[in-house]
Amino acid sequence: MKSSATVEVKKREGESENSLVYRFNKKVRQSGLVREVRRRQFRSRPANKRQRRTSALYRDQRRKEFEELKRHGMV
Fold it and tell me: Which residues span the domain enclosing 7?
């Protein structure tokens, strides 16, 4: 889902630059644009079938080892 959000602020008559920048920053925060960009910054690719299978086997092996240790009272 792509959302192109633009934030636009026009300088009011007699408004200082600091006030303009403050209003712009406030609009950017309210729009959620920064949060969205940070969320997308480190997007990872979905795991392929082989990676999913390997990961599932590893989890299953670790679970069995933990249950074995638990059975012997070591955990």
Answer: 1-43
